[in-house]
Amino acid sequence: MSGLATNIFAHRGASGYAPENTMAAFQLAYWQGADGIETDVHLTKDNIPVLMHDERVNRTTDGSGFIQGYTLHQLKQLDTGSWFSPKFTGSRVVTLDEFLVWIRDKALYLNIELKNNKIDYKNLETIVYDKIAFYGLLDCTILSTFNPNSVIRLNEIGAKTGAALLTAERHKQLITYAKDLKASAIHIKYRLLSQALINRSHEEHMAVRVFTTNKPVQMLRCFSMGCDAIFTDFPEAAIQYRHQFNS
Ligand code: G3P
Ligand code: MG
């Protein structure tokens, strides 16, 4: 992990180079030297946490319909790589367990984004939290969500990971709002970023992490403003830019 000010999280793994949220993308993020990996979690019909971004499988697999409509066994029949490139044909959906087993001996941060803003999966917080605890990864994990009720629920269960509030919309009183929710951090869309927001957030001891910064100019602005982390599809490039920025 880097001791430098701004950490680099591979967004959905190194998803600029490999299909998002697949083992290939996670492995590549690790090889490229990312400080952490961001991934998204949903529940299958049989309540198994799986790593995919959309509620439906249509965009990133050869299937169709909601993740929630599939058992894990059914979901594992789908191809999660060929939409990106024939090179990745045969990739399979990754469960949270598989991911945690893979990452637990690696010096990486994890950001698990609970995808419960459109479908508020029952008990998603405890299902995910208990697995992170089981694998001994509480100290290096950040949990985040766009769903304010989920931030509250994570705090109610006493999540040692804290609960980061994700936002993609302008909010006049964002810091106060996040503070009232007892969010541990703010994960904000790049276009909403300002130096004042970072300063105010830091005054309230909330980290600021920024998504999704794929352009060099965006990355450099985040580094110079003192963002705690960026999420990028191109961790290898971001690491190079951070190196140049710091030298
Ligand atoms: O967690 C940061 C970012 O991933 C949030 O947006 O839509 O890419 O999951 P999205
Ligand atoms: Mg995400």
Indicate the topology.
Elements: E1 7-11, H1 23-32, E2 36-43, E3 49-51, H2 72-75, E4 94-95, H3 96-103, E5 109-114, H4 124-134, E6 141-145, H5 148-156, E7 164-167, H6 174-180, E8 185-189, H7 195-203, E9 207-211, H8 216-225, E10 229-232, H9 235-246
Parallel strand pairs: 1-2, 1-10, 2-5, 5-6, 6-7, 7-8, 8-9, 9-10
Antiparallel strand pairs: 2-3, 3-4
Helix pairs in contact: 8-9
Domain GP-PDE: 6-242
Protein name: Glycerophosphodiester phosphodiesterase
Number of strands: 10
Total number of distinct structural domains: 1
Task: Assign the CATH class.
Answer: Alpha Beta
- What is the CA-CA span between the terminal residues? 18 Å
Q: What is the approximate shape? A: globular
Mean pLDDT: 97
* Neighbour order of strands in the largest sheet: 1-2-5-6-7-8-9-10
Small molecules (ligands, ions, cofactors) in the structure: SN-glycerol-3-phosphate, magnesium ion
Using only C-alpha atoms, the radius of gyration works out to 17 Å
User: What order do the SSEs take from the amino end to the carboxyl end, as H and E?
Assistant: EHEEHEHEHEHEHEHEHEH
Structural class of the secondary elements?
alpha/beta
Helix content: 25-40%
Count of separate DSSP helical elements: 9
**Which CATH architecture is right?**
Alpha-Beta Barrel
Range of strand content = 15-25%
- Give the name of the CATH superfamily: Phosphatidylinositol (PI) phosphodiesterase
- Any low-confidence stretches, pLDDT <50, length ≥5? none
